[in-house]
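Appendix B.2, paired examples.
Example (i):
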Amino acid sequence: MDPTRIEALFPHAAPALRRRVVFVRKAVSFALIGVINTFVDAGVFFLALAALQSAGASVRGFAALSGLCGCGGADDLMLIAANLMGWVVGVTGSYVLNSTFTFAAESGRTLRLRDYGVFAASGIVGAIANTATLVLVAQVMPVWFAKGCAILVSFVVNFTMSHFVVFRVRRPADEAAELDPRV
């Protein structure tokens, strides 16, 4: 059906319908960018892990660190380091792509260090929600099902944080406050 015909038939519902369509498009774009960045994160993780495991100095350094902190073996610490490297690259790519495409209207396609920090912090919130969901659901359901639930929960948390906190629509007062903290 022609969009102008819908507006003619339902003039009061058209604005709400347009907002919903925009919201759904943003959610789909956010999800697609999330899939891309999942592959980026995994690629960086596996490359970093291989590099850390193949460098003798790295292995010795992580072994020494694990001996000092008593916080796991060298292999565990290399997994954590590689995972953090993958996450940082993934969250950075996600911020750039979501600023440019998903939330272009809200961000003005402008990258801001403050927004990146909030985006990264919201990613941590999503990771915590993901992990908590995984552990809780795995108590009563198969792990594959728990992981699926965890992915859905972190998607909802990350999208909600991005939509309502990181890339919220800026009002003139918000912009003035960023420029002059006394406002």
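Example (ii):
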Amino acid sequence: MQLVKLLNIFHNSKKVDTSDMNNNEFTRLIDSISECPGFILRHEFFNSAVLMPIVEIGGELHFLFEKRAMNIRQEGEICFPGGRFDPDFDSSYQDTAIRETIEELGITEDDIKISKQLGILVAPMGVAVEAFIGEIIDYDSLNLEIDLAEVEKIFTIPIEYFRKNKPTKYHVRIQVNSGYTDENGNYIELLPVKKLGLPEKYSNPWRGRKQHVLVYEGMEDTIWGITAELISEFISKLERANR
């Protein structure tokens, strides 16, 4: 009966026949909702995609990594090829992963063979990453022309290394703030707690909790954060499949 009351208000009708829940308006309401829903408020996120490139070197499978150039966002960090979803160029997140890999490594679409999607990682800093697993075909014979404006260098690490060496788990503390102080010392109010009559406690940081951060240490370049999470998920699925 609660659903009937809700629909009565929603449709602004005086009477709802409880024996006919398949009426036209209800059907249109339900049909308007996607059968394959994504996560709510996705448009508020930085939506991106990466390719986890696998290459064969000397009969052994390796991940191919990039080190970001020093003049771009998150400079010097280790990552997989990828970037932001662009609706002007991409019809899907897989298209994003392929396009960014082509641009960053200087290869063609024919050099990439997508195997499957690993999953979607939603990071607490407002980033959503769709990760795809793919093979770089005939890697040894390719003449890579990396985009030095974005990529300082590329390198590979055997997948077996990550099976034998687990990541270290560190933590950061994440809090929600109703405002912040900018670089000039000015306080910027984002949520007017007093004006809205919200509980005073929300004037101060809240929801402080620990969030784990995975780190693969002991290499020339530390691999951490989102890239480490994707590797760990890949290895976990690989090990479960081999049990």
